[in-house]
Amino acid sequence: MALLHQSGCSPGVLKAASALVALVEQQFLCCCTTDARSIIKLESKGKLWLLDYETFLSRGLDCAKHNPEVSEDMEKNFAELLSEELKLREAEALESQQRADMALLEAKKLASSYQKEADKCNSGMETCEEAREKAEATLLAQKRLTAMWELRARQRGWKEGSAKSHAASR
């Protein structure tokens, strides 16, 4: 017997049980397994209903086929459950997409910040390079000027190492 606690084919209980079976079949709800039998526990209005899953599948669904109202309710319930599940999955997907969008936005902000720092660094490097080139040119000009004055001094009789000041020789 599909309903171990109560016999018969009560539309309300069958409706609830069929919803549970649909959930179990879609792997949204797990059954308890005891003594190699799957048992579904259903509590309704203070009563505990124990459903043997295998028997319910073989007999309970046959009972629903004979009652068009219950069969229609089962189809509606199943469609509603699937619709709810789709809505839940859509909401989860939307939430996941929003998290991904936020992470992407944060990554873009961070990349922009790093790019600004890199630009500052490159600008500083260019400034340093320009200053080095200018200093190198100034040094070269100073060496040329020094060489020119040294040449003039040698032409006038100056020798390296005999650097006596002009004031001291007077």
What would you note in describing this structure?
This protein has one domain (1-153). It is rod-shaped, with a radius of gyration of 46 Å. The chain is 71% helix and 10% strand. The longest helix has 88 residues, at 68-155. It is built from four helices and three strands. Strands 1-2-3 form a three-stranded antiparallel beta sheet. It has helices at residues 11-25, 53-66, 68-155, 166-169; strands spanning 32-34, 37-44, 47-52. By secondary structure, the chain is mainly alpha-helical.
The chain-level mean pLDDT equals 75
Q: Could you say which overall geometry the principal axes of the C-alpha atoms support?
A: rod-shaped
Number of strands: 3
Backbone CA Rg: 46 Å
The secondary-structure class comes to mainly alpha
Percent range for β-strand residues: 5-15%
The main β sheet shows up as:
3 strands, antiparallel
Helix-strand blueprint:
Layout: H1 11-25, E1 32-34, E2 37-44, E3 47-52, H2 53-66, H3 68-155, H4 166-169
Antiparallel strand pairs: 1-2, 2-3
Helix pairs in contact: 1-2, 1-3, 2-3
List keywords for this structure.
DUF1068; 4 helices; mainly alpha; 170 residues; 10% strand; single chain; three-stranded antiparallel beta sheet; coiled coil
Short description:
With 170 residues, the protein is mainly alpha-helical. The protein is built from four helices and three strands. The protein starts with 10 loop residues before the first helix and ends with a helix.
